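Question (not urgent): is this output format expected?
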Amino acid sequence: MEKMISSPEEMETTIQKCATELLKILDSVENAGFEEIVQVLSKTGDNFDKTNDPTKSKSRRLVMARMLRKSVQAEDSVFVKVSRAVCLATRGVVLGGGNNGRVLAEMALRQVGAAVFTDRVEEAGKVLGVMASVTERVHGLWYDRLIANV
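Got this back:
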């Protein structure tokens, strides 16, 4: 509704800064919730608002909080699309490996505007890959027998 960002480059920079702030809060505050996330998001929006109108800022904060609460429900279409993109990105890292996995992850995350989180997904995917490898070594024979008996 409000044309606060004028170019795609400015949008990318803004998303990167906001994501960095969100990650900082989510990593450092043990019980971070909606309130802390909305504060970061509203601070980002307030940086572009030249009117400095507290009523407008409060209204924007309320809309953000409502949208955030709605978007984390399993039946929400945005939640489904983002979850699917994160799952595909993680699969890309685990199954693609190395640089190919990173490229696949970035492509999947870019579809939902979350390419800035590629490093995080790559880290998690590597851990999952190691866990799968260890599980296969420990339980591989058991899995083989289980499948043979089915």
